[in-house]
Write a structure and sequence with these properties.
alpha/beta, globular, 336 residues, single chain, Peroxisomal Thiolase, Chain A, domain 1, 4-stranded mixed beta sheet, two-stranded antiparallel sheet
């Protein structure tokens, strides 16, 4: 874990049990704001450890939050023990949930504006095209913005060449990455799987957008109850960080004498009280199977291409043909 509480699970658990939040005043080297008052910043010493976890020659291809992913993966692999090293790198799966709200950032434009000089008339359209389409003043902008940037960096640093997937669908991506990993293991596509989730909301334009929509608490006062996943939520404070875990089949763990920390049976997301949600979509799957005389025990999984929007996913589930033993990873809304 690489979180505002620090590195590893213990500081996070201590913060939970002690009721001590890890939020701090919002700080950014480029932007000063009075409206975004607090943020969940990863501690400076952990940021440096994340950077050091990436070989020097590969740092130009990543961003601070992808470095966090590399460090979280490093710690998860270490926790897995000798079982990881015994698996061929072509049988190591990697399933990544990546946030894409930080690149390209306002910092990219700030550097460009500085180089163009102060007091000059600027064509913002041309500047945007130069920066985003042609690489411009930062030739790695496009690489940083790729949806598989985190997956690529983690796979190179930690030598994973097996089954993989990179997902970028907000909060639902983490759940889907976990589902994708378990499916790969159950179907023998990999022998061990690394699941990584990483991202940051620390991009001024992104934070400003959430503020305008009323998603953020105005300050650290009030009753102190953020209730981020409750229908009576009064906002939240955004954060950054990364988490990683290693999964393997229980029989393989038993065979090598390992003591599993937890057994993952399935992933379930339950909707709240504010209208259609994941549970509503799941009922559509059940209805479709029933209409075609198929029992759930006959299926390995269901193939769907949900877009994290019930309005579009539900109608599609109505017209999906029956299928047996396919892949199933609907990208579903997951809290906020």
């Amino acid at each position: 874990m690489v979180l505002p509480t620090g590195r590893h699970v213990t500081p996070l658990w201590d913060a939970w049990t002690d009721g001590k939040p890890a939020i701090s005043p919002y700080l950014d080297p480029v932007v000063s704001t009075r409206r975004i008052t607090h943020f969940g910043h990863v501690p400076a010493e952990v940021v440096e450890q994340s950077r050091e976890a990436v070989p020097h020659r590969q740092r130009k291809y990543g961003t601070p939050y992808t470095f966090n992913a590399v460090l979280a993966a490093q710690d998860a692999i270490a926790e897995a023990g000798p079982g990881w090293a015994s698996v061929d790198d072509h049988r190591r799966g990697l399933f990544v949930a990546q946030d894409n709200s930080t690149t390209p950032s306002i910092g990219t434009f700030a550097r460009g504006l500085t180089q163009l000089g102060e007091g000059r008339e600027i064509d913002f359209g041309a500047l945007t095209n130069e920066l985003l389409m042609n690489g411009g003043l930062d030739p790695f902008t496009i690489i940083h913005a790729l949806n598989n940037n985190t997956l690529a960096l983690v796979s190179i640093v930690h030598e994973l060449r097996g089954d993989c997937a990179a997902l970028v669908q907000g909060e639902s991506a983490a759940v889907t990455a976990l589902q994708r990993a378990t499916f790969s293991l159950r179907n023998g596509h990999c022998d061990i799987a690394l699941v990584v989730g990483a991202g940051s909301y620390n991009e001024p334009l992104t934070l400003a957008g959430h503020y305008r929509l009323g998603h953020l608490s105005k300050d650290a006062g009030g009753d102190g109850q953020l209730r981020s996943f409750d229908s009576a939520q009064d906002g939240t404070i955004l954060s950054e960080g990364a988490g990683a875990l290693v999964l393997e089949r229980s029989r393989d763990a038993t065979a090598r004498g390992a003591t599993p920390l937890v057994q993952l049976c399935d992933t379930v997301v339950v909707s709240g009280s504010r209208g259609a949600g994941p549970a509503h979509i799941a009922h559509r799957y059940d209805d479709m199977l029933h209409q075609n005389g198929i029992g759930t025990e006959q299926l390995g999984a269901v193939l769907a291409d949900g877009k994290a929007a019930p309005a579009t996913t539900s109608p599609r589930s109505n017209c999906s043909p029956p299928c047996s033993r396919a892949a199933a990873y609907p990208c579903r809304p997951f809290g906020r």
